[in-house]
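Progress narrative, Year 2. Work on Methyl-accepting chemotaxis sensory transducer with Cache sensor from Amphibacillus marinus advanced from sequence curation to structure prediction during this period.
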Amino acid sequence: MNKFKKALQSVSTKLMLMVISIILIIGALIGAGGYYIARGQLIEAGQRDLKSIVDGSIAVLTILDQQVRTGELSLTEAQDQARFMVNGPETDGTFDFLQSNFSYKQEGYLLAYDSDYVLQVHPSRLGQAPRDEQNRQNRAMMIDAGKAETLTDHYVIYSDQQEDGSYRDKVAYMQHFDPWDWSIGMAVFQDEFYEELHTLSIFIATVTFALVILSGLVFYLLTRRKIKLLKAVTSAANQISQGHIYETNLAEDADEIGQLSTAFNKMSQQLKALVTNVQHTSTQLLDSATDLSAISEESAASSEEVGQAMNEIAGGTQDQANDLEDVNTRVESLTQALDAMFNYHQQMNAMAQKTATASQDGSNIINKLQRSNAQSLSANEEISHDIGGLSHKVEEITKVIETIENIAEETNLLALNASIEAARAGEHGRGFSVVAEEIRKLAEQSKSATHHVHDVVAAIINETSKTVKTVESTMHTTKALDADVIETKDRFDQLSHSIEAIVETLTASQQEMNQIKEHNQEMRVAIEGASSVAEETAASVEEITSTVDEQVRVIDNVAKSAEQLTQLNQELTQLLQAYHVE
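Result:
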């Protein structure tokens, strides 16, 4: 089991499986593509065969119909002879369609339906009506296909139930023979078109399997020597990883695996020399690290004593510097507070200036609004006057319409009297009666039109009244708005005076703040001078202390480095003990 698992993990096995997989995939794609292409071509060829057979049967029916027209045959005799010719000889009520010239392979035969879906041509179901709704729908589709205008619509694909209850797809080509009202065609199971492809599928599978076997054998023969060399490289690498350092002598070649062998031989030679040199150097390094550690310990003790004395001096100087720094911090806080107050005053002054500008802009806008409101009021008065004139004109139109209606009614009465007189005149008054009737119709149309115009005028009067009310409401609103605008203008004037007073107060306050800021700056300069002297003293002490501390740290680091060097040398020695140079 372990050998089998190891063989599966080898490079040769993986490469061989990859080659076999590629061949299988290519073979499957070629086989499937060829199968479906051939299947499509065979289906198209089969459909063309169906069309040819049906067209031939139409030609036979046409000849028989001509004999019916010439009186050589009756319609019944011609139809019986047509069944014999397209479905073969009849035996015990069944037609042997395989002996006919109009069959397709073993199961393709001609059939025909009349407009009532009854079979008129069929090898065994002659005169049979649809047995269920599904069968009726299939026959309806076939009859519709026979009457289609385009060639593709003459083909029908439907499911046909078999004796075992299963379904198989059928393809039918239908034509309609108008003289007899027959929809004649041929229905064939679709899989009959490409049943020969089964042999082709077996052939493709066999060829693919043979290619897999042959490719695997060729791959093994071509890669056997290289895989053997690769295994030798792996074995040598495993031995070196276990501590056995030796110079390898692997076979070298010009390809990638041969170049790997050459590089591995050089690497093993250089690795052997490297381990030998490191072992020799490690011994010398251990002695040097021991001497350096002893010297570092002595220097560190002397430097610590000097550092303690400098720390005491630095402590007093630092306390003085801290006191001055605290005073300086308080003065700095005061300066910041004064600066903040100065900035706030400037911001308030700027905001007051902007507010004054906005107030002036608002006053200008109010003036414009007052003028616009006056113009709007004047325009509304003109609109009201114009609408009054429009209302007067509409009333005059109403009077004219009433006059037209009266004329239409009188014309209608005159036309009626003329018709009566024409009727009394008999034949001589017939033409006059027609003219009178036309006049009456025109009068009726005029009356109807005037009624419509009257309705439109009434609607105009109604909308005019609404507009008058809307204009009056707008004028009232405009007058009220004018009063509000005047009041708003007074408020803006009061706001402008208040803002001017605020600006004067802020200017005086800013002058006082400037004087306070100048005094604070003088005090800050004096404190910074004292603080600078204290800081210089502290800095000098700290510099000396820092130098001593740095010297102590350097010496400590040297001692630690010497100890680490000794420890690393011991670890290196232990690591080198795991390698055996041969």
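DSSP finds seven helices and nine strands in the chain. The two ends are 36 Å apart (CA to CA).
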